[in-house]
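User: Quick sanity check before I run a bigger batch. Here is a single chain. Can you write out its predicted 3D structure?
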Amino acid sequence: MKEKFRQFMIGRYGTDGLNQFLSIASIVMLLISLLTRVTLFTWVGVVLLVLCYYRSLSRNIGKRTEENYKYYAIKDRVDNKFRGLKDQWANRKIYHYYRCPKCRQKLRVPRGRGRIQISCPRCGTQFIKKS
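Assistant: Done. Predicted structure follows.
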């Protein structure tokens, strides 16, 4: 039986990070549907699970690899955003964070210096804020 499954999976894509995310998301949706009794969550969970199996059994490896690459690009962007917010929260007693009014660059200014003139390193705009 194990050999038949191995023969069946030859040339197929298998699992990756996106498949793991889809399977966990489908389990979460199905659990939510059990708790809330809303059928929409059931259908979304089933669709995610079917998509996960479709990707695993696909023979179009190039397309699945490209989908996984896009998933990791989005995941890294979200992770970096939360990491930045976490760092900002950890340093909230030491620094103030402002955005440049012209280019929206995030700027870090030390606290306790009174009213100071801040220069944006990206566009050179100068503005006054309390630190």
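The mean pLDDT is 91.

User: Great, the batch can go ahead then.
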